[in-house]
Amino acid sequence: MPIAESELILNDDGSIYHLNLKPEHIANTVITVGDPDRVDAVTKYFDNIEFKIQKREFHTQTGNYKGKRITVISTGIGTDNIDIVFNELDALVNIDFTNREVKNKHVSLDIIRIGTSGAIQPNIPIDSYILTETGIGFDSLLHFYESQHVQLPLITEALVQHLDWSPHKSTPYVVSCDKNLGAHLFDKNIQKGYTITNVGFYGPQGRTLRLPISDQELNKKIASFSYKNKRITNLEMETAGIYGMARLLGHNAVSMNAILANRATGKFSKTPKETVDQLIKYTIDKVANY
Questions:
Q1: Which of 168, 165, 183, 170 is CA-nearest to residue 240?
Q2: Cα(232)–Cα(48) distance, integer angstroms
Q3: Helix/strand/coil for 226
Q4: What pLDDT score was predicted for residue 59?
Q5: Cα–Cα distance between 163 and 14 in angstroms, integer?
Q6: FRET partner for 231 with CA separation of 20 to 30 A, picked from 13, 155, 239, 274?
Q7: 88-122 b/e with 16+ CB inside 10 Å = b?
Q8: How many of the other CB atoms lie within 10 Å of CB of 57?
Q9: What is the pTM of this model?
């Protein structure tokens, strides 16, 4: 049965609604970044760029790097945008736009996030890098989908108890990265971590400017949590949503994090652009031979 026009929205030129992309515009390897300006910071290393477009915060470029066709797309900030980007990327490869039906043959994308993050443990150095082994979502995105089969409920239960989690907040969900892609991107200079994806940058991450927050001890409780001798390493705003949506849609995802801040020590990187640039170069070199 065809998918209704109100559900699969296409532009007049046949492109998907928000991203403004057609199926031929994207590669099977996708790098996501939050900042639209960071797309250029990735593709400046490409041998060529065959396509580029920007609509709203969604900036996309597709080209080749060392013989590998790669798409780079900015998601903007937050898992609400991840919901848009991942559903539309999946539609581009797994739905026939002509007859509005799901294709018989499923295509799996390799999706790598290159992002910035703040460490929650005092011993994690500024300007270091974390590959997220497990994403913990403090947002509610995955609860809107039938997603129990991709979640790790034992970690959720332990975390909710440890944090004395308020019933007024969304229950955390926990999802792991793709193990094969993660193993390929891992290196001795990269630390594996448990990453919390927050629903905001200030109060939800324990930052106080003028507004008091509901749990002054939240970050300390997060830092002291341990599950099978693994601690939460860092905070950001997209990874858990990426892992959840990728698993639900049958794609492979890994999040690479540049640590620009340490929330425990109050320090921030003196060279944030250089730190991110080094992570970009490392990641695309790894991706090129995957």
A1: 170
A2: 39
A3: strand
A4: 98
A5: 47
A6: 274
A7: bbbbbbbbebeeeeeeeeeeebbbbbbbbbbbbbe
A8: 16
A9: 0.96
